[in-house]
Amino acid sequence: MRFALPLLATVLLASPALAEVPKVVASIKPVHSLVASVMQGVGEPALVVKGAASPHTHALKPSDAKALADADLVFWIGPELEGFLAKPLQATAKKATAVELLEAKGVRLLDAREGGAWDDHGHGHKHDHEHGHEEANTHIWLSPTNARAMVDAIAAELTQKDPANAAAYKANAERTARRIEDLDAELKAALAPVTGKPFVVFHDAYQYFEAHYGLNGVGAITVNPERRSSAKRLSDIRAKITALGAACVFAEPQFEPALVDTIVEGTKAKKGVLDPEGADLPDGPDLYPTLMRNVAAALTGCLGS
Hints:
four-stranded parallel sheet; globular; alpha/beta
C-alpha cells in the first residue's frame, strides 16, 4: 500500500490527457472567442487586442510581446488587418506557428470596396482564398459561413500541435459549428424585415454581414479608420444619403463619432452604433454569438424604427 500513491502519481503524469497544453495567442476578440470555444475545457488562449482597442490603431505592449514569445500557436486574420503584428510574429514569436485565418480553407473573401459611396450598391466580388487577398475585405468573421471555416482551421491546428486533446477539440468544434448554424437561422429571421433599407457605416467592416444577410449598405464614411476622411468623401456620402433616402448612419465605439454628426446634418438619416469586434463585451466563447446578435439588433433597431 505504501507504493500506491507514488504509482498513481506516475500513471497520472504519464497520461496523455495531462500532456502540456499549447500556449495559444489570438489577435482580436472575435478570433479569440472562436479559439476559446474550440479550446473550452482544455486551455485558454491569450488575447492581444483587448477591450475597446482596435487592430487598426493598436500598439504592442510588453505583456503582448511576452505572450508572443511564449506562444506555440498564434491565430490572427493576417497582416492586412493586424499590421502591427507582422514584425513581432517574425522577431518575437520565433517558436510559434502563426495561423493566418484569411487563408483558411473554406473562407470566402470579398474584394474591398472603395470610394465614398459604393456605386454598384453591391457586396463586392467573391474569390477563392488561394487566389490572393491583397485587395480583400479582412472582416471575415462577420460571415457565419466563414466563422465555421475558421473554427475548422483552428481545430485542425490545435489538433496537430496537441494530438493528446484531439477528441476534445473535435467535439468543441462540432458544438461551436452547431451553435453558429443556430445563430445564423436566428439572425436571418430577425434581419429579413430590413434587407432593402439603405444605410451608411463608419468604415467598410460589415460587407460579409451585408452579403450573407442581403442587407443594403451603400457607403462608408472612411476607407481607413486611421485617416481622416476628405471633404469630398463626406460630400459624396451626404449626397448618397439624400439620393437613396438612407435610413441610418452608423458610428463605431472605437472611433471618434463626431463625423457621423457631420454626415447626418441636414438629412433625414438617424444615427446608430455598430461594433464589429465586441469592444465592450467580455472575452470568451460567448463573445462571438453576442457580437453577431448585437450587430443585427443595432441594424434592426435603427432601420426598422
